[in-house]
## 1
Amino acid sequence: MKFKKKISESIESKFSKLAKEKNIKKEKIYSLGLGEPYFETPKSISKKAFSSIKLGNTRYSDSKGSFNLRKLISNKYNEKYKVASSSDNFLITPGSKFGLYLILKSILNFGDTIINIGPCYPSYEPQIYLSEPNAKIKTINLEKDFQLNINKLKKKFTINTKAIIINSPNNPTGKIFTEKELTEIFKLVKKYNTWLIMDLIYEDLSYLNHNIITNNTMLNYKKLIVVSGFSKSYSMTGWRIGYIFTKNKILDLMLKINQHLITNVPLFIQDASIEALKNHDYQIKKFNRELKSNYEYLSLKLSRLGFKIPTYVGGMFIFIDISKYGYKSDLFCEKLLYYQKVAATPGIFFGSEWDSHIRISLSNYKKEFKSAINKLVSFLSSLKNN
């Protein structure tokens, strides 16, 4: 296969091996590494799936997704982002990750250039190459304060630029792109007639009440494609259901690919997602309150050690620079796990340029999270005193 050398497996690190060993021994681990909501899928959502199965919704269905689900998502976007959408502008996919693959497969041609912003979700680059093995990726890394250098970004754009991917809130930094940054990106996108791909899987998790998107003109851009889903908002990570939004006719091509690869997302999973949208906004609000509380505790504790904690953030993660302690991220996380039984995610998982950082997940029960942070602070203090 032409792309096989470009597709790497997940990094198997010393930290990962140690974590597996401790899991096998069933040792108590304090997690700061969780990449999904800490709570179980709300019971009424699961019950809805069971009742849908009992009603016989186990056969083929519309490859685009059920009308009722698409309509509800459309209503949500019209209210949340003030965009005039309809059910026809949405495609239901088996997870947002597959949704991104459909997007990339539909727009990329041989030799196309795509701009990616680092650090990013580790699957982005493999997905690009799976979609088009001969694509060229231009990566622009965020600055140390996680601001986007617009002048550097401008140099990445050329007449051969096909698309740019924006993930906001960002994994792993938690960064929400500011209105100013999005406006500058949009200017470049329009100038070069480029596809704007927005991964908004964490769009509901803005615990500091920052707006994810405020530019209505951008939302009506003819080459805008949004991918999102239910995993993070409703703790439905294993259900594998996402969606694509665009007003562009490219959605018809995505639908054809969807038809040939998966036929349809199971209808009972779609019915469960309807239940989530209809009756579980309170769960999102509760989750945001917990994330905010954990963020505030983290900020208080780490600011006392001289860490600069970002303030324009959302999603589930915070990315902190541990370079002053003299360890690369994998060894740092290995020692943290060994001495304090606290698991965090090494920054190298998100690219070699980020080996000086670790990712902290805010997704944990308050008491458990505080214990983990206290142990992290104790570990950092011991390093400082050595």
## 2
Amino acid sequence: MVDYRRTVTSAPGPLLASGRAADVHDQGDGTVLRRYKHDHDVEHEVAVMRWVAEAGYPVPRVVSGSGRDIVMERIDGPTMLDDIGRRRWMLVAHARTLAQLHHQLHRLMAPDWLRRPDGTPEGRAVLHLDLHPLNVLITPDGPVVIDWTNAARGEPSFDAAMTVALIESYEIDSRFERMGRWALLRSYELAYGRRAVSDQLDTARRRRLADANTTEAERSLLRRRLGD
């Protein structure tokens, strides 16, 4: 049995993954350390992950969290994006899974302490606001959603629109990959509800445009979508 009481030390284990905001290290005991690269208080993220886990939503089990560190259960499996790259025939199925994960999350009534970001539509659903194929791990027991930094409460369709804004601004080089992105987006919108997404899409694009983690190339794509 894995001992989930372990907390982080000053010397993290081997690097498993590195994103724009945080690195993930293997702790060697069935847990991983998610360590933010800059000053960041993980209290909100930990609280959200524990709350949605209690509600039955598929997230890693949180062991501990303080400062810029979260120790959580290690989930083995490729990201949804990696799995699409290896098994392209799964693209439509994964797009539907992404929509199902959103619908499942949006059925949860947000607790009173869950914040609504300024400038976003009113609503009482739990929102992820960063739910895209790199933040879904594919396991034998089903998909698991990671990276709850931006979680909030609000209007469900805005969360879905954020997913579209994120995917459509991916930096992609080849024509083949652009066709794959188009197919993923159309399949996702059809599964979630195209009209619901389109009603919030420009608001989501502008929020993505204002995100400090967005690259200049991604901003350029978003501006073109907005007609700026």
## 3
Amino acid sequence: MRRRQFLSTLATLPALGLAGRLFAAPESSPRFLLVFLRGGYDCANVLIPYSSDFYYESRPHIAVARPDGSTNGAMRLDGEWALAPVLRRSIGAMYAAKQVAFVPFAGTEDLSRSHFETQDNIECGLPPDRHGYGSGFLARLCGVLNGRAPPIAFTDALPLSFQGGTNIPNLSLRTVGAAAFDERQSAILADMYRGSHLQTPVSTGLELRHEVAQEFGSEMAKANRGAINARAFALQAEHLAQLMRERYRLGFIDVGGWDTHINEGGAQGQLANNLENLGTGLGAFAGALGDEWRHTVVVVMSEFGRTFRENGNQGTDHGHGSAYWVLGGGIAAGRIAGEQVHVHQASLLQDRDFPVLNNYRSVLAGLFARLWGLDNGQLERIFPQSRALDLRLV
């Protein structure tokens, strides 16, 4: 990229925070981007256990159809798992090119099912018996790497994962999403039924819908913690790639909108729309890196998964085990990695959630060891009391 083009890219984006000092990136250093989905995304409707009859019994309204060649049918990955059809052209194509792997049954020891507590615990990266928010695991990684991977956070404020670091810039990409409820439509409907015998029930119903939308919209906004939505990520992904291609090697971005308590949808709907934008953004990020995609690893994770069974609002509630995505142009992918069990009722945690069989600290420690050649002592500084899990993806 020419210097003028790079400076033009910077000019289109908000100002860098924390003084925004520009770092020079070593040419030989790999890149790592962590994409954090705030709100707890429903991994069971992304990485679909289509071989399990229990999945279809548990989700009569929101299950994604088995792979059958149709538009709404899932994309078969292996004998157990399939991919949400809305991701077929983006993540599915990358999986076929062996540039994506999935790690199901992944997560943390935290069983609180609280967005805030679990997000904080993950970003701190400490063992369950240690608490403190003075430093995050990405900041500690920066310290271990000692300048080998210039960092940046694509967030409004420096995230907890980078707290405790030195001269780490943050770049705000947040945009305001559409309102959860259209007041103009409400006024039109109320006027249509004014004076009729349906005036009272319609008015009451509209008020109730408005209250419910506000309640769940407020909860989702809190779970998002200021993160951009998936559409904004899709629109800004090329800019992120340009910055990481030219200068930065260690990035963090959070994407909100995954707290799907109501009307989640299956092959189509709320979750599918978010996934489509996320997949588009990740594809654009990879494409904009060009040949440097071969030296880049992206991990997509969330604070937790969701309940395996759908709830009474055709959504899902806070769960435990999740599924992580690992992407890169030079990784050993095109497979489902990590410890697994067949999905049926007996394999659920507390008869409600996916269990955690692949601890996030171990998974990330294994990736970091491979990416930067870190030894056990260095990994101990990043993730105390954790044993690296080498999935041989890098």
